[in-house]
What does this fold into?
Amino acid sequence: MNGLPGLYNDFIAIFLMMAGFYVVISQGNLVKKLVGLGLFQTSVFIFYISMGKVAGGNAPILTDGVEVYSNPLPHVLILTAIVVGVATTAVGLALVVRIQEAYGTVEEDDIQAQDDAEEWPDDTAQDSSKDTGPDANGSARS
Amino acid sequence: MSFLEHLPVLIVIVPLMAAPICVLLDRPRLAWLVALIAAFSSLFCAIALLSQVLDGSVISYELGGWAAPWGIEYRIDLLGAFVLLIVSAMAAAVLDFAKASVEHEIPTDRIARFYAAFLLALAGLLGIVATGDAFNVFVFLEISSLASYALISMGRDRRALNAAFQYLVMGTIGATFILIGIGFLYMMTGTLNMQDLAERLPAVADTNTVRAGFAFLTVGIGLKLAMFPLHLWLPNAYAYAPSIVSAFLAATATKVALYVMLRFMLGIFGVDFSLHEMPFAWILMVLGVLGILSGSLVAIYQDNVKRMLAYSSVAQIGYMVLGIAIATTAGVTAAVLHMFNHALMKGALFLALGAVVYRLGSVRLNDLSGLGWHMPWTMAAVVVGGLSLIGVPPTVGFISKWYLVIAVLEHGWWPLALVVLIGSVLALIYVWRVLEVAYLRPRPASAPPVSEAPLSMLIPVWLLVIANIYFGIATHLSVGSAERAAALLMGTAPMGGAQ
It folds into this structure.
């Protein structure tokens, strides 16, 4: 259990988690973001399932001659979490479909550009949301 | 008697079961009625539960008759009952308001499903608070979150879709972090029951696994709470959601996340570990202060009044986080108290804006010109809510800031008191911007005529406004409950009713 080989599953989980997380952050395509999110969640499932394994343990079914069982509880928990993950992906994809209908694109940058153009039509699509013009601010202080 | 015994689970089950009924009925008015009845039943349960635990006792309910720690335990103590009351009362108030507002903002064929999602969000939020099982918290958190993503995406503006998607991504990352954190705790203790966890953790607290679990939980809950650097999902989500969704989520979702933070950090990890051994209090203090200042500052520059209130929520969360960071019973009291008071003021303000949207179809600052004279009752509600946000006596905002400042000064940390004061001044500026436009500018002649909002909207708004003033004068219930709940959490309770 100790040393590198014993932690093999954990390293896989961490690698998958970081890969998924990176995809979520770096990708501008909303569908790819959801793929990354799925990867991120799945890594946690692996982490939980590995946690339940007891070295030398049998499957948790009562039979004669078996003393050590693996812990089935994390597996059951993860069954719930998988359902949650599926639901999240479904809701996310449904949102992407509606975003595609409303904006005609699923690229984050294009959506942002369209929103900015709507917000400040005469502005050259500034990036900061704090800029609503100096006059609004000025009148507040007067 | 047997009916009363089942209250801890009924409060969650009733809205959960009412949600599919809404979908099956598929009639806007019937669905609204079902939702209203469910919300009021939950409110009744919450009041009954609060009256049972007011003396400091704890209600434990074994789900399906399986004894804890094997079965799932629902556990209601004073803090839990207090938060249950906030959530269910806000749901009831918002649903009173909802009928006209929803018919106006949501396409008719989606109204029934809208109420179903609303009830699911309510059930999830109530479940998080009622449960005594760490994994159950995650499940209910996801139920409420998934429902809120759907609710937010139903906003009329297409930006609501993008806001909901951003919230979905960040919310899922937050929930997954919480899941990892719970996994680490389970690894070390072999239990998911909160009571059990609290008992077994001290023995293994000095390990990196527990510290990692603590860190994951802090970040995960921080995301759900919209604590300062993790708040990016909140402004757009609240700004573009349908009016009643903004009001409901602003008044309840972040409060429940704060409850989860109190429950995990102080209840499970324990005061010693969280506040003394880990640098939790310092981190929270810095983030709280930054949240107050940045949230208020950005709010000043907002053109959309709903977005302004959303940034103001970030600042208000900063006050609550600061309360926890003070790490004394008085500080936690201030945090719990502000939870209650902030729900009242933000509920009133967002509902009043919902009435503005109903008549005007916009909440852009310039469109509000002269509205104070055309919608006098609605804008008067905004005035009182705004005063409460600033913290002017005799509103609830004053009470929570008063307790926060007292808690800060107990330590002699006067710079923090100064931060609270600066936050109030900044609130004064952004509230004044709205009032200036609404009262001092004439309504342009070209603008379409507007009339006062219908009575069915004004009554719930003014009920909340009156509550803002009432609980600012008669502080017995709010301060009394908050003080005792904080004392129980910090382990300095004068009465040992627990267990």
Remarks:
- The CA atoms of residues 97 and 133 of chain A lie 34 Å apart.
- Helices of chain A lie at 3-6, 8-26, 30-51, 73-103, 108-119, 134-141.
